[in-house]
Amino acid sequence: MKPLKLDADSSRTGKLEDMNAPWSRLLHLATRYTYPKRYPLVLAGDAMFDFYYLAKGRLRIMHGTESGRERAMVYIGSGNVFNEATALAGFDDPDCRFYCMEDVELYRFPGTLLHDPRFVAEYPELIINLMVSMSTKVLVMHANLSETGGGTAVKQVSLFLCGLSRLHGDKLDFNPQMTQEELAVFLGIHRATLVRALRVLRGCGALLQLTKNRLRIGDLALLQKIAGE
């Protein structure tokens, strides 16, 4: 099976799409559920140790921070499996949360399937697909945490913007495909804190503009210096 291919925006912003599409073949083994936009999806009881296929919509996977705020670890779109690590390991992370960013349709698979030797032997290509997608999510989350995990809000934002620019070939003007609200959640900081950090970066000329559809960097060298690169 070929490795999954991620574009620059997906790998840097944690927005993952369609990594587990082959699992749609087995939806007859799962139970269908629908949830509205902004619904906080809570997995409790037996549901906590099952795994899920997102057929439609988008989810944000959140995790608590030491400051008490939550930050987005990864965004998953349709065609993705989630909660598979808990289903496999049998370990519940109480700080992990799921949030419906759109109306969603998902399918719940029994976690026991992943521990059934007969199922694994019958669908080896799906197990490999799951292993590859799990590894991809781990690497994406690790990369984002390592580059944005510490320092002041100004430094965190600078690190993120530098990384995004680097993945776009050091461009100074491109589409980040991320709102300021999403960025604040992704970094685990308050929206007002992000606004103040952006004001500082604009004030010194390092940043010119940041909207959902356009990022303009005024001075990349200065931005890198602020980020500590």
How would you describe this structure to a colleague?
The chain has two domains: 15-147, Jelly Rolls, CATH 2.60.120.10; 153-227, Arc Repressor Mutant, subunit A (Orthogonal Bundle). Helices cover 38% and strands 22% of the residues. It has helices at residues 8-13, 84-89, 117-122, 124-148, 153-167, 180-187, 191-203, 220-227; strands spanning 15-16, 31-35, 40-41, 51-56, 59-64, 70-76, 80-82, 96-100, 104-109, 173-174, 207-210, 215-217. It is elongated and about 60 Å long. 32% of the residues are buried.
Contiguous low-pLDDT stretches (5 residues minimum) are none
The CATH homologous superfamily of the largest domain is called Jelly Rolls
Give me the Rg, rounded. 19 Å
The counted number of beta strands is 12
N-C termini distance: 36 Å
Give the rounded overall mean pLDDT. Answer: 85
CATH architectural designation of the largest domain: Sandwich
Helical fraction equals 25-40%
